[in-house]
Amino acid sequence: MTSEMKGVLFDLDGTLIDSAPDLHNCINKVLIDNNKEKINFSKLRKLISQGSEAIIKGCFDDHLENSTIQRLRDEFWEYYSKSLTDKTKVFPNIDLVLNNLTEKSVPWGIVTNKIERFAKPIIEHFRWDKHATTLIYGDTLTASKPSPEPLLMAAEQLKIKPENCIYVGDTSTDVTAARAARMTSIVVGYGYSDLDLNELKKIADHFINKVIELNKIIFEKNL
């Protein structure tokens, strides 16, 4: 870690964890319950970064009434609340990077748009709550990413200036939030990007394809 960069923040879904298998399984149960065909895994994967409402609309209809969207979302959430870590896995080498940060006494945390009801049990399941300095959920504040507010709150809890923080994510929403917060953005190519990867590369400060590359960027490059 360079003298300028003193803290690292991470997105959750598509960055630290691959939650797509559980989300795919749950939305397909809702589709079956409502006499609809199952959604293709690759199509669902592209919807994840946009949130539950986008998943519902993408699987059913863009022109659903709000009451119907809420009913279907409640059904989806009910299934998901019971299977948060059934098939969800940590991406390879993530724990190596997090352990490296902890061992070097570099404060780190997680800033996700996933609401606490779902994110907290997942984080606790992987025992990251034991070492993370800050955990900011999608409903911690009234604003969520792409607003910079969650990142700014995280930096405040780390007691580090935003410009001395790195934010690692997988979507344009993460990059936009990092930019607005004046943080250095690192975007991963293995997540649930809403943009073509070439477009994502253009807007981020750094782009990586493998988690292990984070060690080189965080500890070896002069960011």
* Biggest sheet, spatial arrangement of strands: 5-4-1-6-7-8
Instruction: Give the tally of β-strands.
Output: 8
The first-level CATH class of the largest domain is given as Alpha Beta
Q: Approximately how much beta-strand content do the residues carry?
A: 5-15%
Instruction: Please state the CA-atom Rg, rounded to the nearest Å.
Output: 17 Å
- Give the second-level CATH assignment, the architecture of the largest domain: 3-Layer(aba) Sandwich
Query: CATH superfamily of the largest domain, please?
Result: HAD superfamily/HAD-like
In words, what does this structure look like?
The protein has 223 residues and is an alpha/beta fold. It has two domains: 7-18 and 88-219, Rossmann fold, CATH 3.40.50.1000; 20-81. It is 44% helix and 13% strand. The protein contains ten helices and eight strands. The chain has helices at 20-33, 41-47, 52-59, 66-81, 94-103, 116-125, 149-158, 172-180, 197-203, 213-219, and strands at residues 7-10, 17-18, 89-90, 108-111, 134-136, 165-169, 184-188, 206-208. Helix 1 crosses helix 4 and helix 3 packs across helix 4 (66-81). The termini are close together. 41% of the residues are buried.
Give a quick set of tags describing it.
single chain; 223 residues; alpha/beta; Rossmann fold; six-stranded parallel β-sheet; two-stranded antiparallel sheet; 8 strands
Question: Gist?
Answer:
The chain contains ten helices and eight strands.
Please give the structural blueprint.
Layout: E1 7-10, E2 17-18, H1 20-33, H2 41-47, H3 52-59, H4 66-81, E3 89-90, H5 94-103, E4 108-111, H6 116-125, E5 134-136, H7 149-158, E6 165-169, H8 172-180, E7 184-188, H9 197-203, E8 206-208, H10 213-219
Helix pairs in contact: 1-4, 3-4
